[in-house]
Amino acid sequence: MEEFDGAGEVDGSWSDESEFASLDAAIEAGEAAEEAQLSQPVLAVVGRPNVGKSTLVNRILGRREAVVQDVPGVTRDRIAYDAFWGGRRFTLVDTGGWEPGASGLQASITAQAEMAMSTADAVLLVVDASVGATTTDEAVARVLRRSKTPVLLAANKVDDERLLADTASLWSLGLGEPYPVSALHGRNSGDLLDAIIKALPDAPRDGDRAVAGPRRVALVGKPNVGKSSLLNKLTGEQRSVVDSVAGTTVDPVDSLVELDGQTWRFVDTAGLRKRVNSANGAEYYASLRTKTAIDAAEVAIVLLDSSEPLSEQDLRVLTMVVEAGRACVLAFNKWDLVDEDRRHQMVRELERGLVRVPWADKVNISALTGRSVRKLAPALRTALASWDQRVPTGLLNAWLSDLIAATPPPVRGGKQPKVLFATQAGIRPPTLVLFTTGFLEAGYRRFIERKFRERFGFEGSPVRINVRVREKKPRTGSKPTKVAKKK
Q: What tens digit of pLDDT does each residue of 21-36 get?
């Protein structure tokens, strides 16, 4: 079994104490930028299914962000993107297809679209110009006319001049001039963006700004550990294909899951057998997609088979999650197959194999019977709260000074390093930067991390500790070396 090490430190150096203040100023600037992003005006893109909303979103963004497929219902929740045009930044919210009077899943999708409209500063209604105004478009228009929010009408799929005349009939919706565009080819997208910028206010209106969509959860683990079975149990439907043959899932499968009163976006991934760079063929691409899914997630549920000993594959998956800096929950699946003897064995295995991640919350579940799967939601919330947590610089330095005074770092090269200043330079994952006079051993860093967690929590999230060592300055006043003259 290979040793797991989730340290991942990225160290550096410093030469002047002004760097302490400059780093703190950079952190404050980053927080101000985050607040500015939250205070951007919001444009909600709405319309019935399959009119090209996500394609138009990608055209406005200038990049492929929203998932696009030539079938209705691909987009289900409201997803926010940061957009820029004409020197203005705004938040663009893509929504699922709006079907008034729908039921089941489609009703939930419609509710997400209505929530996006109610919190937006302007609404862009997208209509398929090649079809014309349908009864659903007219129903949506009636709702939008009653609201006080500015509304723009985009007549999409005007791919050539012949369809321009058809857009005139869309005046009947009572939403003003329709803007003929082709999201696929980019036709007239600039004119539409100019109109959007004019309609958006300088500052967002008051109200709920939480339009970023559900938190993203990646289901990861070795093959045949029960990831797809867990997703099917959570969704209550056959969302992923399940078979006793390992490797059934190849592409990541994402689903909206209602768990403990909150909507989550779960992504089922392919089981990892080998390292990404040593896999080949379809297995290589499956591994690459799994790594991409982990990077795109905020928190990962690492599924472990309770009925089998901890393997190198399990540790490799866990290493990938921690190195990606994601929050983590350990789910021990197939708990219904574990007897008393196996539980005693597991205690010894976990003490030895998971010694580097004692901070990860552990939940015993059974994807087959549904045992304790509802306990995943509190563990996910705790991990994400830790992932987003920040400790103020003053409080951090006061705590660290007391810690180092009680237990100073070990002597290295005849000198004892001193920690002069510390700050939490980032979140997601939480990252501490220590300015020191000398290198800190890995064991002492782990000691600081353990005490840091005891004091401030951070359960379920990796914590990175970076050390910046003071550069040695050349001595001043030293006599220059004499160079012997040639005779």
A: 777 666 666 555 555 5
CATH, residue 291: 3.40.50.300
pLDDT digits 0-9 by tens, 100-151 = 665 444 455 555 556 666 778 889 999 988 888 888 888 888 888 888 889 9
pLDDT at 334: 92
Is position 232 annotated in a ligand binding site? no
Residue 116 assigned ligand-binding role: no
Q: Is 274 annotated as a binding residue?
A: no
Looking at the fold, whether 452 and 405 belong to one and the same domain comes out as yes
Q: Which domain holds residue 465?
A: 12-32+390-470
Strands across the sheet containing 88-94: 79-85, 88-94, 42-46, 122-128, 151-156, 178-180
> Are 194 and 228 contained in the same domain?
no
If asked whether residues 160 and 67 sit together in one domain, one would say yes
| Residue 98, annotated as binding a ligand | yes
Is 160 domain-assigned?
yes
**223 is an annotated ligand-binding site residue:** yes
* Domain end call among 148, 168, 199: 199
Return mean pLDDT, the chain.
Answer: 79
How many Å apart are CA 332 and CA 371, to the nearest integer? 11
DSSP secondary structure string for all residues of 77-142? S-EEEEEEETTEEEEEEE-PPP-TT--THHHHHHHHHHHHHHH-SEEEEEEETTT---HHHHHHHH
Characterize 127-154 residue by residue with b for buried, 16 or more Cβ atoms within 10 angstroms of its Cβ, and e for exposed.
bbbeeebeebbeebbeebeeeeebbbbb
pTM above 0.70, yes or no: no
Q: Is 176 annotated as a binding residue?
A: no
Structural domains counted in the chain: 3
Structure tokens at 383: 């991990």
Contact 272, 290 (CB under 8 A): yes
